[in-house]
Write a structure and sequence with these properties.
alpha+beta, OB fold (Dihydrolipoamide Acetyltransferase, E2P), 5-stranded mixed sheet, 3-stranded antiparallel sheet, 2 helices
Length: 144
């Protein structure tokens, strides 16, 4: 399926591939997990299954978690595993395949970009993000 879900996280816009998006939930309740990676908010229930909640901005940009959860979670499949991305907001569905990343732009976790309001929005490559997420989750479990 071509297109992406336009989301905002850590004051940045990102596109999540529509083919991987399962649901968007406002008001999701997250339970903290002691000793988790710095980008992991905790876990939440989705259709009877506990899913890891990862702050998208913290994961991609290497920032710290905001003080309180936003409450908006995008449930997606990442390397064929369920993951919940905490975002500030999910803005719109865009049915556009996007463009290749411009030469010289360092976007190692993006499969391409889209132009929205004269800005380039990276479209997240969930295979690459899945590898990054796996290393964060493995590191968090070693610290416990």
């Amino acid at each position: 399926m071509n297109g992406y879900l336009l989301v905002r996280s850590s004051a940045h816009a990102f596109g999540l591939p529509l083919g991987a998006v399962v649901a968007v939930v406002d008001g999701a309740q997250t339970v903290p997990v002691p000793g988790a990676s710095p980008c992991v908010r905790g876990i939440t229930d989705h259709r009877g299954r506990m899913v890891t909640v990862v702050h998208l901005g913290a994961l991609l940009l290497g920032t710290t978690l905001p003080i309180g959860p936003s409450g908006t979670v995008v449930f997606a499949r990442c390397q064929d595993k369920p993951v919940a991305f905490e975002v500030d907001d999910a803005d719109e569905v865009v049915r556009d395949p996007g463009l290749p990343a411009p030469a010289g732009r360092r976007l190692p976790w993006a499969s391409g970009v889209a132009e929205r309001d004269d800005l380039l929005v990276p479209i997240v490559d969930l295979d690459v993000v899945g590898e990054r997420l796996s290393s964060h989750l493995d590191a968090g479990s070693d610290e416990r």
